[in-house]
């Protein structure tokens, strides 16, 4: 039997699960994600007493590295991915052992990632494969944003685009949720929150991301809703971690979310009936892929075709009515356009349309971020065909 020894930092965890073996014995299962000094990650599955052994160390707000040494673990390979799992009583788990190699490993990890960052993220291993894995299979078609907006078929599809705006303010980039599932929790009962979905109660609610952004690809722009998993993947931080930061961007959202801007990404979005009928203009993101090589490989031929040689585009499809920025007297529209934002649209990346904020809000009812049926919409749009917002140079 092939066995492996691994040392690494725990950077991800899923919720533990109770199982019954083929012999009728009750046991527990917990999947964690371990990363080495080369930032290589491998999934590790723990069974039985090892789950109880490590659970006290998996705090949501942990800022110190959790170093584990896994001995005599059994490798397995599925769907072209390698993982390891504990094997009966043979495998051993050592947590933060006082060894010179572990101390050196810990110091090097701290040098690479400051200790004020949350170290362990919640992961969902029920997701059979990541966005990158799905795209690498080669049977995925990536659409332009224009094609996605005009799609009349419900279901998931992939698009490529650059995040050019964050349509979130001071208090609407997050929501309070159950600590065991993504279900939104409202007013506490007494001094505890009770989840209406899984029944879990806790003295405090968890904070999860709910960030609305705009993506652009040269054929048009689209409003996307990033839930917690995808936002954590992109910004590398937890919502609870940055909630209390005093530094806010001009539009009120945390400065930490600025890292989302100008990111060229592949998005798997869910096209719902409400999107097709035009009364819901926000598309829910199911997966993201941030791999530059995969992005270039899957870039649709039409994408960025309207961008000039200097990287500039003359128009941005806001799916609103035609507005001439040189004439802002139209009383039907109230658009706050800062001069440097217009300038940024003329340079290489149209990344600062974030200052164009249209504030009509439609309340969001968050049942479950995985159910993909709930969204917000801050963009005032007319029903009917999508039109373009033309940006004119100031010297025209």
UniProtKB/TrEMBL annotation:
GO MF terms here are: DNA binding; zinc ion binding
Q: Does the keyword Nucleotide-binding apply?
A: no
Q: Which UniProt keywords apply?
A: DNA-binding, Metal-binding, Zinc, Zinc-finger
Coiled-coil region(s): none
Domain of life per record: Eukaryota
Q: Where is the composition biased (Basic residues)?
A: 380-389
Per the record, which residues fall in region Disordered?
A: 375-396
Stretches assigned to the Replication factor A C-terminal domain: 161-289
Task: Check the record and name the Gene3D superfamilies matching this protein.
Answer: Nucleic acid-binding proteins (2.40.50.140)
Entry's family note: Belongs to the replication factor A protein 1 family.
Q: What is the name attached to this protein's record?
A: Uncharacterized protein LOC107468356
The species this protein was found in: Arachis duranensis (Wild peanut)
Q: What is this organism's lineage?
A: Eukaryota, Viridiplantae, Streptophyta, Embryophyta, Tracheophyta
């Amino acid at each position: 039997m092939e066995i492996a020894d691994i040392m690494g930092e725990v950077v991800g965890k899923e919720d533990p699960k109770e199982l019954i073996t083929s012999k009728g014995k009750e046991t527990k299962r917990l999947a964690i994600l371990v990363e080495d000094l080369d930032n290589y990650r491998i999934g590790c599955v723990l069974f039985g007493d090892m789950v109880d052994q490590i659970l006290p160390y998996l705090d949501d707000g942990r800022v110190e590295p959790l170093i584990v040494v896994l001995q005599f673990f059994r490798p397995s390979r599925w769907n072209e991915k390698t993982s390891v799992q504990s094997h009966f009583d043979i495998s051993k788990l050592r947590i933060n052992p006082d060894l010179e190699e572990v101390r050196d490993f810990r110091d090097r990890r701290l040098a690479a990632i400051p200790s004020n960052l949350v170290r362990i993220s919640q992961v969902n291993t029920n997701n059979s494969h990541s966005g990158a894995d799905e795209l690498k299979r080669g049977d995925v078609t990536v659409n332009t944003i224009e094609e996605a907006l005009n799609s009349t078929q419900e279901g998931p599809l992939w698009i490529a685009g650059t995040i050019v705006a964050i349509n979130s303010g001071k208090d609407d980039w997050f929501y309070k949720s159950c600590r065991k599932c993504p279900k939104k929790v409202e007013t506490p009962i007494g001094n505890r929150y009770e989840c209406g979905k899984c029944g879990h109660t806790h003295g405090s609610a968890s904070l999860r991301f709910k960030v609305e952004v705009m993506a652009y690809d040269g054929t048009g722009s689209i409003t996307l809703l990033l839930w917690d998993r995808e936002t954590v993947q992109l910004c590398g931080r937890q919502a609870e971690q940055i909630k209390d930061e005093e530094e806010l961007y001009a539009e009120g959202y945390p400065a930490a979310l600025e890292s989302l801007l100008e990111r060229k990404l592949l998005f798997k979005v869910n096209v719902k009936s409400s999107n097709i009928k035009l009364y819901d203009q926000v598309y829910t993101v199911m997966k993201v892929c941030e791999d530059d090589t995969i992005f270039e490989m899957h870039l649709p031929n039409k994408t960025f075709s309207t961008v000039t040689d200097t990287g500039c585009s003359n128009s941005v499809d806001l799916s609103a009515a035609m507005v001439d920025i040189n004439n802002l007297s139209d009383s039907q529209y109230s658009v706050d356009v800062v001069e440097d934002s217009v300038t940024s649209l003329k340079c290489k990346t149209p990344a600062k349309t974030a200052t164009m904020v249209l504030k009509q809000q439609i309340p969001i009812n968050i049942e479950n971020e995985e159910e993909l049926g709930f969204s917000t919409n801050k963009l005032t749009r007319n029903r009917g065909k999508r039109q373009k917002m033309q940006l004119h140079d100031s010297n025209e």
